[in-house]
């Protein structure tokens, strides 16, 4: 099969013809049709996340069809359309797993990081961690839901019932979560890089009530903010934009250092928290709500062999919405 592989940290992915992965008990073999490109893939390629599997097939927003079933993997029929997310396996035994927090599992394995992912024609996945994909979405538009949508949704849940919600960084995750937040009756305030007027226009088209630069003060105090951009400098900025008791959620897996800031910016019960990974419950809940809205994902498609170009455009901030590799 064809695959784009990370063989050396910091180097471009290389195209390889390799054997199909072999199926173990409990796994399904999936013929991949689409795989979205996530900022986390950049963090893996750049070596900002420790100890990836090497060589590695990146990609954890996978849509495909079940080609073959491993022993006792009877959750899906052959031909079923499935989504494969970042959370690829958990132990089921540690304190986190046993308390409904499998996203924090001590021994978790992650798709496209510690196990091979979706920049390829085929992959294998533990059937228990795959999701059925609602019919409301075609393969390309469904792919970004698997991480940008799903982990974005976990971040949104952490804002509780915040009515005025700020989103810092208006990329793949924010453009999906803005739609969910609006559906829930919230007001969304979009923050882009200073000078990125095209992205503000994109945000306004999705119904945000205000769009401005991250260096601007919103017209009203926010109840909560989610930071999707990997820039630690935005944490004190967002804290100053939220009202008393407000929450600032850091939605990414990696962020540059957070500069020091006066305690008075945190005072009055403001909260900073991070979001790590996902649980299967997050996935089920999010895919259900995404289909009811239904979420419209903006995508830019690339052939599998163009994965490096997709990563380059994501790095440069050239994409509106999500890059998706389409695999025939
Ligand atoms: Zn565990
Ligand atoms: Zn991701």
Q: What distance separates the N and C termini?
A: 11 Å
| Main sheet: strands, sense, barrel | 7 strands, mixed
Number of helices: 9
Rough outline: globular
Order of helices and strands: EEEHEEEHEEEHHEHEHEEHEEHEHE
Q: How much of the residues is beta strand, in percent? A: 25-35%
Topology:
Layout lengths: L1 E4 L8 E4 L9 E11 L1 H7 L16 E8 L11 E4 L2 E3 L5 H4 L10 E2 L11 E5 L4 E2 L6 H4 L5 H10 L6 E5 L3 H12 L3 E6 L4 H9 L4 E4 L8 E6 L6 H8 E9 L20 E4 L5 H13 L6 E5 L3 H9 L6 E5 L2
Parallel strand pairs: 10-11, 10-13, 11-12, 13-14, 14-15, 16-17
Antiparallel strand pairs: 1-2, 3-4, 3-8, 3-17, 4-5, 5-9, 6-7
Helix pairs in contact: 4-5, 4-8
Bound molecules: zinc ion (2 copies).
The site of one zinc ion (ZN) has 5 residues, from loops.
Question: What does this entry look like structurally?
Answer:
With 328 residues, this protein is an alpha/beta fold. It has 9 helices and 17 strands. Strands 3, 4, 5, 8, 9, 16 and 17 form a 7-stranded mixed beta sheet that branches. Strands 12-11-10-13-14-15 form a 6-stranded parallel beta sheet, sandwiched between helices. The chain has a two-stranded antiparallel ribbon with strand order 1-2. It is globular. The mean pLDDT is 97. The chain binds zinc ion (2 copies). Residues 90-91, 93-94, 96-97, 105-107 line the site of one zinc ion (ZN). One zinc ion (ZN) is lined by residues 38, 40, 60, 86, 147.
Summary keywords:
328 residues, alpha/beta, 6-stranded parallel β-sheet, 17 strands, globular, binds zinc ion
